[in-house]
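Predict the structure of Putative DNA-binding protein.
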Amino acid sequence: MSPYSRRLHLGDRLRNLRQEQERSIQQVAKEADIDRTLLTRIETGQRRVAADVSMKVAEHLGVEQHSPLWQEFYALARDAAQSGWWEGRAFRGLSDRQALPADLEAGASRIRWYDFALVPGLLQSPAYVRARHDATVTNDHSSDNPVEIRARERRQQEALTEGGPRIEVIVEETVVRRRVVPAPAMLEQLEHLLKLIDANEQIDFRILPVGGELLGLRAPRSPVSIYEFAAGDPPLVFVESLTDDVLLRDHAEVANHERLWKRLHEIALPPDESRVLIARSAEILAKEQ
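Done. Here is the predicted structure for Putative DNA-binding protein.
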């Protein structure tokens, strides 16, 4: 369960109720004796509050206590008020760039991931992670924080366990051929990928070949992941950049990325051919060692 996706869903439901009744935030906040700014943050999913606070708003919007609709709202409010392992004392100081994906992954039933330069984080080997951290320069140096490395390891453990989300990956061919880390780390990464693919039925790994035609298709300019949730929350799109990330919720924007994913999926090599390409790259590297 992803508390953040639950908060977003809860906020949408409350806002829709209020707007259907043509009532302003100021009106509802005053009637429910809640700070207007707090109500705004509840509606936008940006603030975690106790379940009874959310239910107080729902009841002031006409949701009858213990009705089927009330039960729906209560389940949402209860989940939205939860906290996850990424907020625990052991992960104090964890950056939002790791905490938010960890939150989304916790409730995801399916994650679709595209990357043109690197192996997606959930599938990175320890040596690959360390080498990338050594090569990365950020303004806040968060990648040098041991908490960040521990959090990535925990994310991998959670996502790759039995019952974890289905992980569908499309990467450019250069991801398994270009050396963005020293050769030993790259070889470990390729062998790690092969083991993951063979051992986890939930992983679907496909390579977009250099010779694949993208005619009439605007390829993504950044790594993109699409999250679908077991709880039925609306899908979300996570777009990464060098220094910041963007979470897309708008239905039209999400639909555009889903259509793009479908096209890339049609062009990418099937899993068995992708595995052959990974193995071939690993063999070439191994001979050079």
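The domain at 86-288 is CATH 3.30.870 (Endonuclease; Chain A).
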